[in-house]
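Hey, resending since the last one bounced:
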Amino acid sequence: MVTTKNKAMSNGQISAIEEHHKRNDGLPFDGSIIEKIKINRSAVERRAATISTRRSVKKQWQAAWLLKAISCIDLTTLAGDDTRGKVIRLCAKAKNPVRPDILRALGMEESLLHTGAVCVYHNMIPIAVDALKGSGIPVAAVSTGFPAGQISLEDKLIQIKKSVAAGAQEIDIVISRGLVIESDWQALYDEIKVMREACGEAHMKTILATGELPTLTKVAKASMVAMMAGSDFIKTSTGKESVNATLPVSLVMIRAIREYYEMTGLKVGYKPAGGISKSKDALNYLMLLKEELGNDWLSPELFRFGASSLLGDIERQLEHYVTGSYSASYRHPMS
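The structure tokens again:
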């Protein structure tokens, strides 16, 4: 069973965001900050390799961490065959992510557990908004020519404004990767800054598509530029690249967040996305975040998983903790 202490933590932290951090309004562009950034790939890879070997979370502690992971999931469907019914079912799962019998066995039936958000394409926003009404779960929408971003800046801004008008409370934008590859940091800053302005009150998650960036140094520089331009979150991937979230890339981005916080006192969120489908992977990312940034970031306000199948595996692991047996994956459908 989840202990009384963990249950109290869960009621206070899993079901709701308990603290509202000051929003990141960004900084004026300063190229000297960007030019000083250099990343030692071998050192990063050595550090990242220790995450899965230095920590082992078992039994009720693992169950508590997995419940925390659920509260930080952007439950996502971004497929060509998305339908109204699929989105409605996904929203129902977001509101009730774990079967009631499992929650009862964990002593968590009153936790009001739900996912961090539901992420959809623009045309599905009204459906998701209606399905989530009264739940407190925000709708996130991918925008700006997702996933490639190969449209004009004017069209990107139009997409953002339309998604906000349709009810999206969070906008996941994609950057122009060519600007990073060519090290045109001023142009990247200018692009992200006007997209942040177009978001208005909606929070902006900036997708770097790190699998398409050539070096970890460029990942770190793009992360810093994105935060200077006012990003509320920086996000690894669209989930459509051949390489998506990895622990080394996450370490680089998380340390950029830490450096920005030390410079400004402003907390920027982090979202690894793509390829995170197993509970053990989710635990590794949570441990990395805790070790590098501390407990404040263990909140859906500052950390999200971009995932679709992760929730099903977490639910299976929780059922295994309760019953001692693994169930078939079809017993935990997403939509």
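The longest helix spans residues 247-264.

Sorry for the duplicate.
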